[in-house]
UniProtKB/TrEMBL annotation:
Listed SUPFAM superfamilies: GST C-terminal domain-like, Thioredoxin-like
Transmembrane segments: none
Name the record gives this protein: GST N-terminal domain-containing protein
Leader peptide range in chain numbering: none
Organism, scientific name: Methylobacterium aquaticum
Amino acid sequence: MILHWSPRSPYARKVMISAHELGLVDRIEFRNTLVAIGRPNRDLMADNPLSKIPTLVLEDGTVLVDSGVIVEYLNALVGGGLVPAAGAGRWTILSRQALANGLIDVLNLWRNERSKPPQQQSAEWLSAFAEKTAATVDRFERSAGALGAGEFGIDHIALGCALAYADFRFSDLNWRERRPALTAWYDAFSERPSARATRPFE
C-alpha cells in the first residue's frame, strides 16, 4: 500500500498513528506529498482529484480517501482494535472523532485566515474561529474522564492530533489554561510510542 501523507498534516497523522497502533507500518510505503489549498498537486490528482492527503492506494490500485475511511480500512485488515464494529459505543466513539475532526477543520480555517494580509482578514471570522475552538476544547475538558475510561481508539487519535496541531500551528493559543483534565490526558497520549513516532515537523 502507498500512503500519500505529510508530517504537517493532522489528518495524515491520524492514519500514521493508527498504522502504528495496528501493527501495519511495515505494509505501507509512506510517500511525502506536498499539498496546498491554492496549488493543486497534479501528481497526487492522478490518485485523488481533490489533491488532498491522506490518500491510500491499495495493492490492486483501489484508492481510499479521507482519514476516517482509511482508518476504518486498516482497522478491518487486522480484525478491529480502534473502531468498534457495532453497539452503542461505536456511535459515541465516532461522534467524538467527528468533533475532533471538526476542531482540526476550524483550526485550519483559522490559520488560513490569519495567513492573509491584515487588511484582507475578517475580524468576524477570526473571532468565530476562536470562539468555536474554545468551546470545543472546553467540551473535551468536561468529558476527559470518559476519554480515559475506555480502550484507546480512533476518537483518542483524532483528539490527540487536533491538540497537537493546535500546539504546532498556534503557539499563542494556550489551550491548556484552565483545562487540567484534558492537559493530563494529552500528556499521556503524547507519550504513546505511536504518538512519539509521528510528531509533526516542518
